[in-house]
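Exercise: predict the fold of this chain.
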Amino acid sequence: MSFENVEEVVEERDPVSVNKRLAEGWSLLAIVPGFDATNSQAFTCYVLGKVISDTEKTMRMIKERCETREDNEFL
């Protein structure tokens, strides 16, 4: 999977929260081991990414460029 269109990345430890995000359209990027030094306990860390479509990415870039032109009288 390409990470080019990943807009936001979060780490979750709770499987219920992971399933909720997956149902909302997030993608599972990785599952990695974690360690809580305070409690001396190992845990599973789920890394999720909010992916945007190429179309949405293009629309945002166009909008940003238009806003930049409006803010800069010399463009």
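Check your answer against the key: The chain is about 35% helix and 35% strand.
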